[in-house]
Amino acid sequence: MTPLIVQKVPLLDISRQEKPILPELNEAVQKVLASGMYVLGPETLRLEQNLMQYTQAQYAVACASGSEALLMALMACDLKPGDEVIVPSFTFFATASAVARLGGIPIFADINPDTWNLDAADAARKITARTKAIIPVHLFGQTADMDAIQDLADAHHLVVIEDAAQSIGAEYYNKKLQKSVRAGTLGHIGCFSFYPTKNLGACGDGGALTTNDDILSDKLRKLRNHGMEPRYYHNIIGINGRLDAFQAAVLNVKFSYLDTWCAQRQKNAMLYHELFTAAGLTEKIQLPAYPKTGRHVWNQYSICIPDGKRDALRDFLSSKNIGTEIYYPMGLHEQECFQYLKCSDAELPVTHKVSRSIMAIPIFPGITYEEQAYIVDAISEFYVKS
Known about the structure:
By secondary structure, this protein is of the alpha/beta class. The chain contains 13 helices and eleven strands.
């Protein structure tokens, strides 16, 4: 067999997506420059309309970032100091920091060992009289078990805020409705991020919220603009969560390509599964779980190396010029800033195990068959040598 000739495979190469549409992006940015409307404005309204149509939500509110979206969602739900919010420990920092910034108490729950999403059964064990909300994270592009989470929330009168930062376009099969429903419409409020690495990424920070509740929608619009309505009149205290028009314009151009890019990610994920299986590696590493129903949009393709060799494998792949990343190297309960919560590893055994074994490999749109095969061959070579 002729050796694959691949010099370097980055973890992510945004230029492969953006280069073919640079003329459209440049034109959109130039229009904003010519308009002089740099904050909110018609491009932001158009983005919100695109979001409503795409997510099937009744309302969408664009904002400055995914982190601000989480913060605004909690503010809209009147989170008070001392209120508890159940969050997975295995997630990006903003999921829990938004709670803490408002004086709330993040209560860390464990994750499912297959999907790495919030374990509803463990979340149920963490509910107290002070629990106000629950934030399921649709991690890496796959929705959490929303039927179980919604049943839990209904039983305890909890607000459900979806952290869909990594999962725009992901779908969950709702058993009650007997149909697939898009992320962002499965709870009371959905939160999205448009950070450049996301499936729909801006050329900077950006975010959005979705809801089917008109009262929450109105409140979110006020909150993102210092609680102001009309101008210079404030009946609530908000933040500066406004999205700039340049980012909205970029996102509007990219929206028409989003499903194509998601389909490429799905194809790439399937190819990895085939290559890993053919290489006989499925007994050595844990591949990510495919949903039996719904839609996975593969913001990340992460594998688990359960034999304690994760870091050595990562070093080996680096020597082969293959980009990798660890999402996430520890549970949030282990972070120094959350030590006051006194949550131990013993309480979150799956989080602890997965964080010590997980590693993301490239799956971006535009990655070639040869590059994916090169990655799998390199992992095979590592196991032969180790």
